[in-house]
Amino acid sequence: TAPTRTNQSSIPGPRTIKSRTVLRQLSKPAEAESTYAAAIETLRELHREVPGHPEYRQELGVALNNIGNLYAALQRYEKARPAHEEAVALFRELAADYLKVPIYRQELANSFNSLGAVRASEKDLDDAAMKAVTEAIGEFQKQYATKREATARP
User: Fold this and answer.
1) Of the candidates 146, 57, 151, the residue with the CA atom closest to the CA atom of residue 102
2) Residues contacting 77, CB < 8 A, separation 6+
3) Higher per-residue confidence, 8 vs 110
4) 91 vs 150: CA distance, rounded Å
5) Can you give the pTM of this predicted structure?
6) Radius of gyration of the chain (CA)
7) Tally of CB atoms within 10 A around 55
8) Burial zone of 95 (CB within 10 Å; 0-12 exposed, 13-18 middle, 19+ buried)
9) What is the pLDDT of residues 53-111, one digit of tens each?
């Protein structure tokens, strides 16, 4: 089902997400933050309108991870952590719903990795931080096993 309030060409996708990453790398964090926030708002709306569309959830998770990484780079951990936690939740659902789509498991592992890094930066080296890092490692291992299994087939 197509989105109702926007057309396909205005949907933030990998290219627009990449441009925000470039802005962050060009030391324009305020501009990057506002463009990430706008993309997140649009993607949330699309996800509400078309909840069964996995690409919208994936792009939302990527945008949340990216804004979380931006906040972490700015040492705004109180904003970084919830962004990464939401990305983890989205990618956990996607990985469970689409077992044969390896990118969702890879993004889940990346989200766990980012969340663990934020918690470590917050000096939050408690069980939750260790769990995030352990889950990231587990997801990377599952991703590797899936790739190895796929290449071993004749």
Assistant:
1) 146
2) 71, 118, 121, 122
3) 110
4) 21
5) 0.71
6) 16
7) 14
8) buried
9) 999 999 999 999 999 999 998 999 999 999 999 999 999 999 999 988 999 999 998 99
Q: What is the spatial distance between Cα 111 and Cα 83, in angstroms, rounded to a whole number?
A: 10
d(CA 31, CA 24) in angstroms, rounded, equals: 8
pLDDT tens, 26-54? Answer: 578 888 899 899 999 999 999 999 988 99
CB atoms within 10 A of CB 6: 13
d(CA 8, CA 78): 34
Q: Strand (E) positions, 1-118?
A: none
Say whether 93 sits in a helix, a strand or coil: helix
Report the distance separating Cα 86 and Cα 66, nearest Å. Answer: 12
Q: What is the structure's pLDDT at 2? A: 38
Rounded to whole angstroms, how far apart are CA atoms 95 and 139? 10
In the block, which residue shows the tokens 């990527």? Answer: 62
* pLDDT band per the 50, 70, 90 thresholds, residue 150: low
Residue 24 DSSP one-character state: H
